[in-house]
Amino acid sequence: MKPKITVLGLTILLFTGCAEMQQMILSGQGPVTQTEVITGLKQALSVGVDQSVAQLTPVDGYLSDLALKILLPPEAEVITKNLAKLPGGQQMIDRVVTSINRAASDAAKEAAPIVLNSIRSMTIQDAFGILKGGDFAATDYLKRSSYTALVNLYKPKIRNSLQEKLIGNLTAQQSWDELTGKWNQIAVSPIGQLANLQAVQTDLSTYLTQRALDGLFLKIGETEKNIRENPAARITPLLKRVFAQQ
Question: Looking at the domain assignment, is residue 16 inside a domain?
Fold first, then answer.
């Protein structure tokens, strides 16, 4: 027996050009409910976060991925280039970068619960905004809702990595402060101003924390886009049903 088509269903059938909607009404499925939308999106985001974090948590999860690898600030390039010319200079730079990236991978192990808490707090309005949004609408939502908590997680670990002793019994932070301090003295001198040299004012731990979180949300965004575009990535029936109507 064919399902009974209500007046509302007939109205939708007549006034929409959506073949998928017509087929769902005739088959008795009907459009997805608010509960299905929010539950499906929470499933999608949880899958995305778990997959993304799993790629970052190995000891060299950041370091081995060129798209994620955290480097020293661009403003320091002139310093690191000159430092690399000195005996042991390049090794010191490499050790600083390795230490920073491994600290970011360590922090990533604790990132998932923070992001998942943002997912649990999602409202119906949030869910429909994400469903109708662009390729990275969910990632943008997670970034807005969890960024501060993630900074509080990552930054202390990054800062601790900068306190590890390197060449000459100096820490990475001490080396950075010494290098930038000497450079800045030259940059603000009359000779430096004539040469148009720029002082380096970057707060190292803040910059590195931001770069680490950029990597985390880059991975979450890649997973979200894949779920939106690739039906095979929708690993539950509910995901398939919700995202078929995005």
Answer: no
Find the helix or strand (DSSP H, E) in which 128 lies.
Answer: helix 124-131
Range of the domain at 162: 34-243
pLDDT in tens, 51-68: 888 999 998 999 999 999
Return the biggest CA–CA distance within the chain.
90
23 in a domain, yes or no? no
Query: Whose CA is closest to 227, among 152, 130, 158?
Result: 130
What is the C-alpha to C-alpha distance for residues 183 and 78, in angstroms, rounded to an integer?
9
Is 13 part of a structural domain of the chain?
Answer: no
Do 197 and 135 form a contact (C-beta atoms < 8 A)? no
Phi/psi for 220 (5° steps) reads: -60, -40
* Nearest residue to 133 (alpha-carbon basis) of 219, 224, 214: 224
DSSP code of 171? B
Residue 152 lies in a domain: yes
**Alpha-carbon gap, residue 51 to 41, rounded angstroms:** 15
What total of structural domains would you count in the chain? 1
Three-state secondary structure call for residue 165: strand
- Rounded-to-integer distance, Cα 1 and Cα 28, Å: 11
pLDDT, one tens digit per residue, over 60-119 is 999 999 999 998 888 777 777 776 777 777 887 788 888 888 888 888 888 888 988 888
What predicted TM-score, i.e. pTM, was given to this entire model?
Answer: 0.73
Residue 232 CB neighbours (<10 A): 8
DSSP H/E element including 209: helix 204-229
